[in-house]
Amino acid sequence: MINRIYTTVVLYCIIFAFIPSLLGRENADEEKILRMKEMLKNRDTDIYFWGKALDDKNEPVDGVKVTAHIIKFSPDGEKLFGETKSIKRITGIDGSFSVEKEKGRSLYIDNISKDNYEDMTLKSSRNFQYFKHGNDKQFIADRASPIIFRLRKQGETVFCLESKYLNCQTSTNESGKIKGFDFIREEAVRDIADLMLNGEPLTCDIKVKAILNINSATWTVTLSPGDTNGGIIVSEQLLHEAPETGYQSEHTFTPQDQKPPKAKYIYLKSRDPAIYTRYEIEYINANKEFFRLSGKSVTNPYGDRNLEQATNLPWAVTKQLTDEVETAFRQGKRPSKPDLQKLIKDASNK
Length: 350
Description:
Blueprint lengths: L1 H42 L1 E11 L9 E7 L12 E7 L5 E9 L1 E8 L3 E3 L7 E3 L17 E7 L7 E11 L6 E5 L4 E3 L6 E2 L2 E2 L4 E8 L4 E8 L5 E5 L15 E3 L11 E6 L4 E12 L3 E11 L14 H16 L9 H10 L1
Parallel strand pairs: 1-8
Antiparallel strand pairs: 1-4, 2-3, 2-5, 5-7, 6-8, 9-20, 10-11, 10-14, 12-13, 14-15, 15-17, 16-18, 18-19, 19-20
């Protein structure tokens, strides 16, 4: 019994002896964190930014909503990229906006938007580093030379068939075999000699012929319209109206593996009566085993060259128009152009 009491007294003495040390360490850690916070806070620099919104005709655009994010240094381990402050601005009559008297290490323009306008500024050119670190280039704002953001004023919109995942693949043992796409049914044509899918006929709107050179392990690819009445134009430019003239019978190129071609927009006139499509090449595989063309398409099924796609349509309207288009072409005729505004209004009233 005496031994047990003695042991307990010794343990309590040891604990009480360490308490001041533990409290001192805790206070030291708190002071260290405070010093770190102050040091990081001092690394935030002054942020000034001047920007301007211009349309595709170089005219200022007022009323544009701008969302910017300022990234600050932060000692909080859960905030890996630092604390973020969100800032909202609206462009004035001259298209300008500014961010002034803020603190941080970088600024990112997250969103530039206005109804009936399309943001054309690359995401990769929206980040501005203010903190000088190593060889990184430091951004220095200049009120007299604001950063330009481009918006394109949209024209009359039209319902278009859209396919986001149209892929065409040719393996080595299929070299020279013609494949393609049916842009109305939004299906790949795997064999030009067998234009059937699930018991229904396909139409090849564009032909893709890939030939492998065994000696150099390179592919030569020829794109052409699916019929003699059509034509093809390959361009570097994103157009919202298919060209009126200048269509060729084919386009031949030598692709590089995992690199999209410089001229990645394909404008296609196909069928009789004609329809117009824009196909955007997003990805290419061209190795010794296979060639693959991957991209997305927008097709105006009504016969005019307008590719200004109506977006954010009610699901019921999209479904109705898609069914109407597919039914009309299945019957060998082109659908009538709908009154989009009336359909949208009717759908919202249901």
